[in-house]
Amino acid sequence: MTAKRDAVFVHSDQSLSYKFSENHPFNQFRLTLTIDLLKKIDALKDSDMAPPRMASDEELELVHDSAYVEAVKKASKGLLTPDAGEGYGIGTEDTPMFDGMHEASAFLVGGTLTAADLVMQDKANHALHLGGGLHHGFRGKASGFCIYNDSSVAIKYLQEKYKARVLYVDTDAHHGDGVQWSFYDDPDVCTYSIHETGRYLFPGTGNVNERGHGKGYGYSFNIPLDAFTEDESWLEAYETSLWEVADFFKPDVILTQNGADSHYFDPLTHLSATMEIYKRIPKLAHKIAHEYCDGRWIAVGGGGYDIWRVVPRAWSYVWLEMTENSHFSGALPESWLNYWQPKAPIQLPTTWEDAKDIYPPIPRKPEIEEKNRITVDKALYPLRQNKKSREPSA
Length: 394
Ligand SMILES: [Zn+2]
Ligand SMILES: [Zn+2]
Hints:
The protein is α/β, with parallel strands linked by helices.
């Protein structure tokens, strides 16, 4: 019997086959850049890694309609007409068809299932699958670069195979809509999403009043932040609210989606965060895992469209936190910079942290902070009311 490991990194280069086109913003090459950065600081060894497997049709259909899976398979072979694709959200500008798209997508789901099994079978406390995090995938429709929803499938799998109560935590700049709607009426799954308000950003949902439906009412939490939110306010909202949600739900396992697109540099969103949030996001997740879940923590990737300057550092922080190797600070390794700078279309950062002046001051800062506080209060209001009514009166 092998000893339980602290953390396993689920990956194989086959994950890079999830590729729409050369110029599509969703670019898994960021995985290569991240892994190389971790290897160059000696924080990731081959022995830390495990290969993903492919999800079976039966597993995909834990969440997805079989007709949709069939359509993706057809598209995968170039046999789906554009007309037929339209109804399934495939062949759009965001989510074009590509050869082998079924296999590539099922493989990303399988990676998250591999991570789930490692953690639930006590082979590791924590498992990271950065190829996953495709949170916009719906039951019968692709959306926002996502074909199959690996997190939704994994949560259903965790419920059926391990009878686990799952807390899903989504820190991507976009609302984690696909996962939320998959479990909207289920009180045994708690979904939490902190994101840029949907007022100007895809997918438009994630309002604070989306709290669940039927028996699932009260188990869906949304923290929509104002555009241009900066580190302090982002972290205040996250650290206050997630702790209270975890304490309320008391999960068996936590699944975190680590989209890295809230950074000021991200070309698709309008938040003004820096590396500071990416250092602290996994710290709280880690703490919750040990406090409530006997260590059980599965983490996936997600969005992140500044693949050179943001994603490699942000995702490295998740692994460094999992392996309690969080003393990395200051200069990035020269070997990484020397190798990648000549290939990069942009000047790479040279340090782990961002300089204070990467963006000009935000004039509405106090207003934004106040608005975000009100949003957190609204989101947590039912929890706090409940707690009050359970406290003995003096
Ligand atoms: Zn995103
Ligand atoms: Zn740990």
